[in-house]
Amino acid sequence: MSKLDLLGLTLEETEDLVEKLGEKKYRGKQIFQWVNRGEKSFEAMSNISKTLREGLQENTFITEVKIEKKLVSKIDNTTKYLFLLEDGNIIEGVVMQYKHGLTACISSQVGCLMGCSFCASTVGGLVRNLSAGEMIDQILLMQKDLRERISNIVIMGSGEPLHNYKEVINFIKIVNNENGLKIGNRHITLSTCGLIPEIKKLADLLIPINLAISLHAPNDEIRQKLMPIAKRYSLKELIEACRYYLQNNNRRITFEYALVKGVNDQENHAQQLSQLLKGLLCHVNLIPVNTVEEAGLKKSNQDQIKRFQNILKGKGIETTIRREMGSDIHAACGQLRNSYMDQMQGL
Fold first, then answer.
1. Does the keyword rRNA processing apply (predicted)?
2. Same domain, 25 and 79
3. How far apart are CA 111 and CA 91, in angstroms?
4. Which residues are marked as active site?
5. Which residues fall in the annotated binding site for [4Fe-4S] cluster?
């Protein structure tokens, strides 16, 4: 059989593995604790036998992601990482400092297939999915580098998390486990552009994580221009899936709305959006869009953003404007990776 990545196994999968290797089930918990502390050496696992360490060496490996580049914002101490994967691929991660602690934004794929016009992550298309272990190691590396615990996770970096459903769910189970990073489900946010079947599957798991929907338009016509996924699933279907998620988890849904000048930022768009979300337990996060030169999209001005917010709030919809963080270090998804890849290709 092919070797298994220990860092990408849930506690239950690790316990099953050690039993197959002829060991007691509790040894799985010990191994799980070692790898989720960031240990990469089997030899360092001092409380398990030499025989078991040899069995692990023969049948498993431990993913090792490395920091290729690190930038720290002089504005707000946001830290941006370029991570080098073992196959040479590059991904991004960001740590943002808030009063309530550190929030890590991690990638779930190398690149992205979704093709959203305002997102730099999708410019080069999808290369491959990340393993659960590669996602975990992003968190471990950030914690080790900053010498501080990550208290919140946002799966909102490069990639569409629900397009990598199995590995992302494993990741959530692993980081949530009390023998691992012990990050509560309510401190984990998954952002999706709206893969309907996977949203419903996630709802059925009854894992009460926070769901963020990349909405970005008040009607199907505009959404189809901005997001190819809208040609597969209508807004009516998306809102129905959100209602199903709320019915199963009763966790307020965040709708991400990137304001693009002259495209989706007018007062009639705000009126349409408030009608679309009427009656939902939700929150709207307005995002001044990052300029993506390839797509020719421009940011709305501050007055227009404020007017848009006031209309939604007037309709009883809780609305905030996202604070731009790390703007001096290309902290938005895909920006730093793209510039880095351009530099590499130019050498």
1. yes
2. no
3. 8
4. 92, 333
5. 112, 116, 119
